[in-house]
Design a protein that fits this description.
CATH topology of the largest domain: Rossmann fold
Strand order of the largest sheet: 8-9-10-11-12-13
Order of helices and strands: EHEHHEHHEHHEHHEEHEEEHEHEHEH
Low-confidence stretches: 4-18
Radius of gyration: 22 Å
């Protein structure tokens, strides 16, 4: 069964603005859902009154990829996916999405080596769920994703508990998905099994929703097939991709409870001003937005105003060192400026650690006021008229 994606989201588009971005997609995992991605993205763009989107699809060998996961061969799986991303970049893609949940088990390592920003299906789904009132959800997916706990930790920060089927049930579900569903083959008896397993967990554990954590499951399970709402990760991902493609006028500001991010044209700088300590997606989302600005504009300075807060998790620091900084290095940014209070001893060790890492790639400066930092940006040779 195919979906009418135009019913799901209304996306704003300004016709006649700057050109839409060319977007890359890593597909083939499996082929049936890749076709749904392609049609879904086009449907949403056309429904929004825009021109046909420019898409670059690199379809990889599903059997080979699944073989790597079965063998536990993460290195070759990452290499295969990163090579595919380089292929779409060579074809002109400016950003990319992997049209499957399972490869996102290796997302951090893939992103660390990727030449393009990756629009994560996990991040987008977690953002969607965070706006709901769900407290307990069931996760259905391939055996690899169910075992990995792909959504467990990201959703825990939003107070959502993720349940996965027991090993016996997980094996049944995996055999339904691969190879039949992965190849677009829907068997009525398999659908009945999947519904029966889901309903048992819904009943026994008083669940609020079910995550369709494999992009082929929507070929079999639709909204209304279960007694609770289904969370269609493919549909969420498609809508996010279309929205990114249709961003004719690039956003220059991000605002949340935790921070404010802004591109400062006169100073040729990106300002990230923290309002309180943040962790996980509350920290990473605005930080990724700051990186997006550095990739879009001729930025020479990155200003981090840490007088009211900063990141507060060791895992976020590791993410920053292994993923953020190498991507920043590829931009035009040359200087990182920290704005800190003179008496901020609780942050001294944290900021020293960040300073040492930033100095591997950039010039680092520190000021006690934002005004001083902005004035310093204007004094840089490349910013003088």
């Amino acid at each position: 069964m195919r979906h009418d994606y135009s019913k799901h989201n209304s996306l704003d588009c300004q016709i006649g603005g700057t050109e839409q971005m060319k977007f890359g997609m890593i597909g083939g995992i499996g082929p049936a859902s890749t076709a749904d991605y392609y049609k879904g993205i086009i449907d949403l763009c056309i429904h929004s009154g825009c021109s046909y989107p420019e898409l670059v699809i690199d379809s990889i060998d599903m059997n080979r990829m699944c073989g790597y996961f079965e063998e536990g061969n993460e290195s070759d799986a990452v290499s295969m996916l990163v090579s595919s991303i380089y292929n779409v970049k060579a074809a002109g893609a400016q950003a990319v999405a992997i049209a499957s949940n399972t490869p996102h088990i290796l997302y951090e390592e893939i992103a660390r080596h990727s030449p393009l920003p990756i629009l994560s299906i996990v991040d987008e789904t977690c953002a969607y769920i965070s706006e709901k009132t769900y407290k307990r959800v069931l996760f259905l997916g391939t055996g690899f994703t169910m075992k990995s706990g792909l959504y467990t930790k990201p959703l825990a920060q939003f107070g959502v508990k993720v349940l996965t089927p027991c090993p016996d049930d997980a094996l049944i579900l995996h055999k339904i998905i691969y190879p039949n569903l992965e190849n677009g083959i829907v068997i009525a008896a398999d659908k009945t099994k999947m519904i029966d397993i889901s309903e048992r967990y819904i009943r026994d554990f008083h669940l609020d929703a079910v995550i369709l954590g494999c992009t082929e499951i929507p070929l079999m399970i639709q909204e209304g097939d279960l007694s609770v709402p289904v969370i269609n990760t493919m549909q969420i991902h498609i809508a996010s991709i279309a929205k990114k493609i249709l961003s004719d006028v690039p956003e220059t500001e991000f605002d949340s409870t935790y921070c404010h991010v802004q591109y400062l044209e006169k100073e040729r700088a990106v300002l990230l001003a923290w309002r309180e300590f943040a962790s996980f997606e509350n920290y990473r989302k605005p930080t990724r937005f700051a990186l997006d600005l550095m990739q879009k504009y001729p930025v020479t300075s990155f200003i981090v105003d840490a007088r009211k807060g900063f990141e507060d998790e060791t895992e976020d620091a590791k993410w920053g060192f292994s993923w953020l900084l190498p991507h920043m290095k590829k931009t035009t940014c040359e200087t990182v400026i920290f704005v800190m209070n003179e008496q901020q001893s609780t942050l001294d060790e944290e900021m020293d650690m960040w300073t040492n890492e930033f100095r591997k790639y950039f010039t680092v400066r520190k000021f006690v006021s934002l005004e001083e930092a902005l004035h310093d940006c204007l004094r840089m040779p490349q910013n003088r008229n």
